[in-house]
Specification:
It is built from seven helices and 26 strands. The protein folds into two domains: 302 residues, Nitrilase/N-carbamoyl-D-aminoacid amidohydrolase; 170 residues, no CATH class. The termini are far apart. GO terms for molecular function: hydrolase activity.
Length: 527
């Protein structure tokens, strides 16, 4: 009888383990330093494909089911122009046909064929960014796209996303499609590339499909502070949208490139990587499957503990000690409204409004001096409702609230970094609150420490109030290394407008003037 009970217990344990295993999938991302010793050419691409195949084999040995590679990993992002692009490009089969270039090689470049074969041999879903060549039947011309290609575990092309929001990439034609793909391990993914993440199409629109709970993301992100740190923007997107995000970044710290991670739908971070030394790093994690997206009007608690079976990095974010050598740039904050924080006070309660608008941010902060060490950062509160430039010919609408670190008393120094992290001050608690339009705005948390990693020990609450969304972020533990803590809000209806603050008063005056002009015209026409 005893043996029978033991046998049943063992069987039950195995069943439980099997059920748990079915609740996750294993993903890998590659933070990759492109091999660029040889000139930009097909030869360079093939050398990098060899490295990709090695990491696909490494991942397969660890039972990884899907691996994501970064944007521009095969070529690097420099010197791609009309003189070089044709040699670097390949045609990509229509995903509807599910063609395997490995098994049907005619007409495809060697690098596409090799990647297809590697996906087949290693039985691994593979997301690769490359330059796609398309023959346009209407114009009879060649078009080139910055494209993510997905191979299934048999090497067939099952998805193709053409980057929609190009970032100073005039040689490419933008795409216009939302792209999803299904896997045989029960997860349906959405997909986009780099700057796509901060635009309504595709990053928000794709989530209208309720089956999309996981996103794969390839990027060559340029980190700008205080709001556009690579890991901060990735984590903020995952946390605010309640999705798993599998993000692979190109690595070149001297050029502001780097930052990869696997982020979970409940706000936890499975693993991130960012470093000041150029190099390659593979991240492998078990990702919990999401039954359904958490509804709005909820709070997400901060929680650094991860479920069993998902490794916790030894250092927060897995960064190297030399992160100070990672180059970041500063955003142009000239149109923002600032208020300096008086750190001689222990408790601070402030409300700051953007210019002459009715968009205001409320802050409740408790601080304590940390020993006798002198302060090496000045902290300021900021608010902004307006339009900012993010690339040569692209402007975006913003509603931002944040506590930010500055190198000195000048507003222009905010977003800068000393080699040393902040010292002399501890933030015992921080609360940031603002109201956002649910129909035109997407808001997400923005948190960055001196090590360029986001924090997780805070709550992010969204509540419907009188037709608006009230968002409050509140720390749940003491912070002594913050560079940014706040809300990054996108106002999509203001994209493409001239740079500058949007003032409610001026808009009101314009409406009055327009009403008067229309009234006069109607009166004259009646006569």
């Amino acid at each position: 009888m005893t043996k029978y009970i033991i046998y049943l217990f063992i069987v039950l344990c195995f069943l439980i383990l099997e059920i748990n295993a079915q609740g996750t999938y294993r993903a890998a991302v590659l933070e990759y330093a492109t091999k660029d010793e040889v000139p930009l050419s097909l030869t360079r691409i093939l050398k990098n494909v060899e490295n990709y195949v090695y990491y696909m084999e490494t991942a397969a040995d660890k039972n990884v089911q899907i691996i994501v590679f970064p944007e521009y990993g095969l070529t690097g992002w420099e010197n791609i122009n009309y003189n070089t692009i044709d040699e670097l490009s390949t045609e990509v089969p229509d995903p509807v046909l599910e063609i395997s270039p490995c098994r049907t090689p005619g007409g495809y470049s060697k690098h596409l064929i090799d990647l297809s074969c590697a996906a087949d041999v290693n039985k691994i879903y593979t997301v690769v960014n490359l330059i796609e060549k398309q023959h346009d039947n209407n114009s009879k011309q060649k078009l080139y796209h910055n494209t993510n290609v997905v191979f299934n575990d048999k090497g067939a092309v099952i998805a193709r996303h053409r980057k929609i929001n190009l970032y100073n990439e005039g040689v490419f034609t933008p795409g216009d499609q939302l792209v999803t793909f299904k896997t045989n391990f029960g997860v349906t993914f959405g997909m986009f590339i780099c700057a796509d993440l901060i635009f309504k199409k595709p990053a928000i629109d794709i989530l209208a499909n309720s089956t999309i709970t996981d996103i794969v993301f390839s990027t060559a992100w340029f980190s700008q502070l205080p709001f556009y740190g690579a890991l901060s923007i990735q984590h903020g997107y995952a946390k605010s949208n309640r999705v798993n995000l599998i993000a692979a970044g190109i690595n070149d710290p001297s050029k502001k490139n780097g930052g990869s991670g696997i982020y979970l739908h409940d706000g936890r971070i499975a693993q991130t990587y960012i470093a000041g030394i150029r190099g390659t790093k593979i991240l492998i994690q078990d990702v919990p499957k999401v039954a359904s997206v958490i509804p709005l009007d909820t709070c997400q608690d901060g929680n650094v503990a991860l479920e069993r079976g998902i490794a916790i990095p030894g250092l927060p974010g897995g960064q190297l000690p030399d992160i100070s050598t990672f180059v970041t740039s500063q955003e142009d904050l000239i149109n923002y409204t600032f208020k300096s924080l008086n750190l001689d006070r222990n408790e601070i309660s402030e409300t700051i409004c953007s210019g002459r608008s009715n968009f205001c941010c409320s802050f409740e902060i408790t601080v304590a001096r940390n020993g006798s060490a002198p302060l090496n950062y000045v902290y300021k509160l900021l608010a902004y409702y307006g339009v900012s430039v993010i690339s040569t010919n692209t402007t975006v609408g913003l509603r931002n609230c944040a506590l930010v670190a500055c190198l000195n008393d000048t507003n222009a120094s905010c977003g800068g970094r000393h080699k040393e992290g902040p010292h002399g001050i501890i933030f015992e608690s921080i609360s940031v609150k603002g109201n956002f339009n649910p129909n035109t705005t997407h808001a997400q948390p923005a948190t960055i420490t001196h090590k360029l990693v986001p924090i997780t020990d805070y709550t992010f609450c969204e509540k419907k109030v009188n037709g608006t969304i009230e968002i409050e972020m509140k720390t749940s533990s003491k912070q002594n290394a913050l560079l940014t803590f706040g809300i990054y809000g996108r106002v999509f209806t203001n994209d493409g407008k001239p740079v500058g603050p949007i003032n409610s008063a001026s808009s009101f005056k314009k409406n009055i003037y327009l009403t008067i002009i229309v009234s006069v015209l109607i009166f004259l026409l009646q006569d």
